[in-house]
Give the backbone structure.
Amino acid sequence: MPSSNNRDLILHKAYEIWDAEGRPSGKDMEHWLQAELLISTPPAKAKAKAKAKAKAKTKAPAKTKAKAKAPAKAKAKAKK
């Protein structure tokens, strides 16, 4: 069970999440657990997770395949 101070922090963060999502009903446990995770995750880890998530969203499309190399026999004939 969280300490009284952590409980207040979690309650406040859960309220912020609920408010930011447009105050939907029936998602109180989801908001509580999300807030609990945010409060318990060290700031450096949270920043790294957020950065990785943002990077994944903005990742550039994969490069096109390079031209296929000509077979060795064709290269040998070309040299002659």
